[in-house]
Amino acid sequence: MKSSDRNPAAILRSLKKYTQPDAEEAPAEAGNHKEYTIDELAREGSSTVRNVRAYQDRGILPSPEKRGRTGIYTDVHLARLKIIGALLERGYTLNNIRDLLSAWEQGRELNDILGLEVAVTSWQTPSVPSYLDYQDLLNDFGEDITPDVMTKAVKLGYIIPEGMRLRIPYPRIYNAGKELSEAGVPLDAVLTHVTLVREEVDKLAERFIGMIIHHLVDEKYGDEALPEGEDVPKLADFITRIRPLADAVVSDELGRVLEKSINKILVDRLANVLAHIEKNG
């Protein structure tokens, strides 16, 4: 890398150019949103304004509340939008989704259905995001921040450019990366290993959720049906309590394995030192 490329101002310009979103995009307000304009809803739901309107026209997304000339959406709309997006990714057409949602709503209380949808799509993000500007990022990571590293962090969802600032969805993960970088572990190496860890965590989460669905839904309704009656709000309530249960299991198990791994590495290193002393003694 040229010495001029290491200049903080040069890095800052590079990052802004590399990650600058459309000028029309307004930065989101800090904290958890309960209400959204159509632009905010589309952004939070990884969709577009055009798609949101199309989903409303197809009857698969409820219309917003009108306040003057502005349509106001809620977390219920966001939950439905995320479900539509997930189904589209799996190859369903809008007609398929409309039929599926109609079947899902048949014979069930609307409040119970919406409650379950919100629980399914929102329980996994309890962290309150923080916001930084590009200079903060340079101050925290210095020369570790390059366009390639920035791209990797954005793809992993740990840094989200919003106008002239950056949203940090998971501040604890960001701070962990900062501490590792300060200790001398390159940020690029951290992100590479995080990618591998995420693959394992994905498998763990799928097994954990699969176990729950098997025992709470499949055993009663089969694997091609959805819960009915009072089981709908019960499942929604349980889903909201899954995270602390999962956190407890993963935290304790990770702590146990970390202790085991640290002890093994320490013992192996001591054995190597002793062997070296004996060989050269």
Which descriptors apply to this entry?
281 residues; mainly alpha; three-stranded antiparallel β-sheet; 6 strands
Sequence-ordered SSE layout with sheet pairings:
Elements: H1 8-19, E1 35-36, H2 38-44, H3 49-57, E2 65-67, E3 70-74, H4 75-89, H5 94-105, H6 110-122, E4 130-133, H7 134-141, H8 147-156, E5 160-162, E6 165-168, H9 171-183, H10 187-221, H11 231-240, H12 242-280
Antiparallel strand pairs: 1-3, 2-3, 4-6, 5-6
Helix pairs in contact: 4-6, 6-11, 8-10
Would you write up a description of this structure?
This protein is mainly alpha-helical and 281 residues long. It folds into four domains: 3-22 and 128-185; 35-122, Orthogonal Bundle (Multidrug-efflux Transporter Regulator, Chain: A, Domain 2); 186-226; 241-281. It has twelve helices and six strands. It has helices at residues 8-19, 38-44, 49-57, 75-89, 94-105, 110-122, 134-141, 147-156, 171-183, 187-221, 231-240, 242-280; strands at 35-36, 65-67, 70-74, 130-133, 160-162, 165-168. The strands form two sheets. It has a three-stranded antiparallel beta sheet with strand order 1-3-2. A hairpin with a 2-residue loop joins strand 5 (160-162) and strand 6. Helix 4 packs across helix 6 (110-122), helix 6 packs parallel to helix 11 and helix 8 packs parallel to helix 10 (187-221). The protein is flat, with a radius of gyration of 24 Å. It starts with 7 loop residues before the first helix and ends with a helix. The model is unreliable at 1-9, 16-33 and 107-111 (pLDDT under 50).
